[in-house]
Structure formats: C-alpha cells, structure tokens
Specification:
The protein contains ten helices and nine strands. By secondary structure, it is of the alpha+beta class. The chain has a five-stranded antiparallel sheet.
Length: 267
Amino acid sequence: MRPVPGLTLHAYDAVLDAPGTHRGMPSPTVTLVLPLGAPLDVAWEGEPASRVHQWSTVSGMHTRPALIRHDGWQSGVQLALSPSACRAVLGVPAAAVAGALVTLPDLLARAPWLADLPERLAASRTPAERVAVVRTGLARAVAQDHAATPAALGEALRLLGAGARVAAAAEAVGYSRRRLSTLVRAETGVDPQTYARLARLDRARSAVVDRVRSGATAPRFAEVAAVTGYADQAHLARDWRALVGRPPSEWLREEFPMLQAGPVPAG
C-alpha cells in the first residue's frame, strides 16, 4: 500500500472503572471509527435526534462535541482523515460529511472497500491484526485514484493548519481571500477561519494529552496556549469552552481516566 498523506490510523483498547461518556472534540479531520465488541453509541451534544448506534461511524468536521457513551470498555480502530486523505479513502471531499454523523452504508457508493470491513475486523484477534485488516482495505481504496485535492488548495490548508492567517495563506498560493474562502468551504465544509480554529484546538488537545501521558496530572494551560498559537490562556479557555462545551480544566477532569487508558475514539 502506498502511503496516504494526512491519514492517522490506530487500534485502541480502553478499560475504565465504570460506564460513562467520552467527549469527542472537534478537529480539522474526518473521523472513521470501527468499534469492536459493541456498537459505537454517539450523538452531537444537545441533539439527541443525531444519535447513531452502529458498528461504523464517520463524523465530519464539526464545531461541537460528540458524546460517546460506553459501558466501561472501548475497543476498535480509528482513522483520522485530512481533507486530502478523505478524498483518497472515502472518495468524497470532507465537505460531503461536514457536521454529520453517518455510517458506512451511506458511503459505499464511493468507497466499496468498506463493505465487509466490520466483519473482517470482528475476526481479528490482536491490535496488530486489526491494523493489518484496515491497511489491506486502504490499499484497495487508494488504488481507485479518486480526484485529488488541488495542490494549491492543499498547501493553503496546510498553512492554515499550521497557524497561518487567512490572508497570508491566500497570498502564498496566489488566491484572493474570497477565492480561498470559497474553495476551503467547498473542500471541508467550513470556512478558512473555522478550519484554522479547529486545527489550533487540535494542537492544544494533543499538547495536553502528551503532557498527561508523560506523567503530568495538572498540565500548565498557559504553557499549552503559548506553544499552540493562542494569544494567552484566557483565549485558549474561551475557544475550548465554545467548541468543547467545557473549560479545559473541567474537560481534563472528566477525560483524565480515558486519557490514561490510551487512545480512544476522538469523535
């Protein structure tokens, strides 16, 4: 299988003390979750009608948390797909699933490789076997040569994801700001400012998780803000509350057991 830029794949097993709810955070990726043992039970916060209880779930870019209910144990495989990887793997731009929770049958017309994936995963015994099953499927997906994200737009998204201002990203690739906004929305389902905001939040979440897994029980959010592109800790806290529904300290208290248990569905 040739590499798929912008794709992150991992198998997860998280054993917790009791049933609960994991808060999946917004991010600049499309998330494909393939659970084992029990279907994934997920809904957008505040929207019970959005609830999905299935063996496969795809969540598009979103600006609200996904609430993932569990019985104290979660196991499966997760793929995080950048806009370019979404085209290569699912055969559609990320905008096609923006703000949505969909299941694999909704995507089979463009991604037939997904049809038997849950069954083949159910027969796997170890995390390594799970990853190998998904990689075999991905090889079939990328062999289809779906239309790629235009190179200039891909570079603009890279710059926005790294913290560049919208005007600077547009100038770097030779677009007007209006043209860039139109193209980013058509590709991702969100405007450039929102895409950059999601990327910055994702960098902050990763920084917090890294600190927790290295042994820190109380990460310094001022330090996280400084290294991930926020003006200050207050700015980080406002953004976190707006997009996650909790200030970062409260989110960390709720998620701390899950973070210690290892990678879990991101939402």
